[in-house]
Amino acid sequence: MNKVSVVILTFNQAAFIGKTIESALNQTTNFDYEILVGDDFSTDGARDIILDYQNRYPGKVKAVLHSKNLGQNGLFNTIETLKLADGKYIAPLDGDDYWTDVTKLQKQVDFMDSHPDYSACFHNALITYEDGSPSVEVNPPDQKKKIEMEDLIGEDEIWFMATSAVMFKNHLMYYPEWFLKSTSGDIPRYVILAKNGPIGYVPGVMSVYRKNKGGASFKDHYRDVRFLRNRIMMYKGINEETNHQFDKSLRKNIARYYRMLLDAKQMSRSYFRKAGLAANYLFLKGADLTECKEVTRDYILPRWLMSAYSFVALLPYRFRQSSH
């Protein structure tokens, strides 16, 4: 049995997948590990590269080639590939990212073996940008060493674990309906893991997280109704999953997305839908009087009514002007 299953998930990443697989092959360990490469029906030549590695490293690299794109932003590719993993621990890796430390797997396995009550661990990662912007590290120097549920849930969206930086116990994951419908895989995954035990931090930058036009991070559009409604659904699901333990924070987080919906591009000519969303936002956030007035003026009261109000309010001024 393998100690670790490296699970690489890819779709149309022919330009990157070779380096990703090489970074997994280059690991130095005192245990056996396998490399599963789940391809979500790529059409750019990535499959040929994956099969070439499988032929060169039989028994080590295993191609998981789906007969069609499974959809949901790669989630079902992840689920189906994980079903084949026999390792005690899972080390996920997106097909455009790569590991930079050849002892990454060893360090994380040593941590997990010495912390049997932990569900997962993660390390620092370097974010690099396709457009040449300066690289930045995901985690600060004072990164908290023990992560629990309350560290993952707040009034804003919380993210500080790159996919390529995580290792978690196999067979802990399950997929409630809200997870299966979510376009985010990482946030729900970490919530589920934290329910099963703390998540530890192993210091050191050991991977690169590429941000490029083909990556999932560029598909999250904060002015798109579908994306925003999906986030609302996801956080409502997390609220149920955590038995409303963090209800106050999550309601404010959900309110943020209702507020963004008001300015979504599909909402520009939809008064009645915007009015309902605005009311939801004010209720969930518990907005103060000033914000209530502003949102009511801008999104709830019809424009013709505001125009009529302005006309009536200005009548005394116009009357005085005409009398002179």
Verbal overview:
By secondary structure, the chain is an alpha/beta fold. The protein folds into 2 domains: 4-219, Spore Coat Polysaccharide Biosynthesis Protein SpsA, Chain A; 225-307, no CATH class. Helices cover 44% and strands 18% of the residues. Strands 1, 2, 3, 4, 5, 6, 7, 8, 9 and 10 form a 10-stranded mixed sheet that branches. The longest helix is centred in the last third of the chain and has 21 residues, at 303-323. The N and C termini lie far apart (96 Å).
Give the CATH architecture of the largest domain. Alpha-Beta Complex
> Measured on Cα atoms, how large is the radius of gyration?
24 Å
Determine the number of helices (DSSP H or I, runs of at least 4 residues): 12
Uncertain stretches: 214-220, 304-315
Mean pLDDT level: 88
Number of strands: 10
General shape: globular
CATH topology label of the largest domain: Spore Coat Polysaccharide Biosynthesis Protein SpsA, Chain A
Fraction of residues in β-strands: 15-25%
Helix proportion range: 40-55%
The rounded distance between the terminal residues' Cα atoms is 96 Å
Report the order of strands and helices: EHEHEHEEHEEEHEHHEHHHHH
CATH class of the largest domain: Alpha Beta
Backbone structural class: alpha/beta
CATH superfamily of the largest domain: Spore Coat Polysaccharide Biosynthesis Protein SpsA, Chain A
Organism: Dyadobacter frigoris
Keywords: Transferase
InterPro entries: Glyco_trans_2-like, Nucleotide-diphossugar_trans
GO molecular function, one term: hexosyltransferase activity
